[in-house]
Amino acid sequence: MSDFNPSRHDVDVQINKLGNGKASGPDGICAELLRAGGRAVVDLVYPIVSRLVRAQIWPTVWKGGRMATLWKKKGDPQE
Fold it and tell me: Which of 19, 50, 64, 76 has its CA 20 to 30 A from that of 11?
């Protein structure tokens, strides 16, 4: 079992490292909104992160993503 136990400060640091202008996840919450929530968001997110780390699990829905083919204006757009 891991000795890693994230602190509220660790959660705050990671929230502040989230990139700007990235797509939100299935919950529709973007990084900018999480950062704008400040300490209140950290206080809400920390117990969830702490519980997940202690249990050593990660919800399957958080592992997913959406993929789409984008044409980069090179080659045939039909391929």
Answer: 64
CA angle 46, 50, 54 (to 5 degrees): 175
R_g (Cα) of the chain, nearest Å:
17
Give the helix, strand, coil percentages of the chain, each rounded to 5. Answer: 50, 0, 50
Q: Name 63's Cβ contacts closer than 8 Å, sequence gap at least 6.
A: none
Measured CA to CA, the distance from residue 20 to residue 30 in angstroms comes to 8
Digit-coded pLDDT (tens) for 52-79: 999 888 888 777 666 677 778 887 767 6
Structure confidence at residue 27 as a pLDDT band (50, 70, 90) = confident
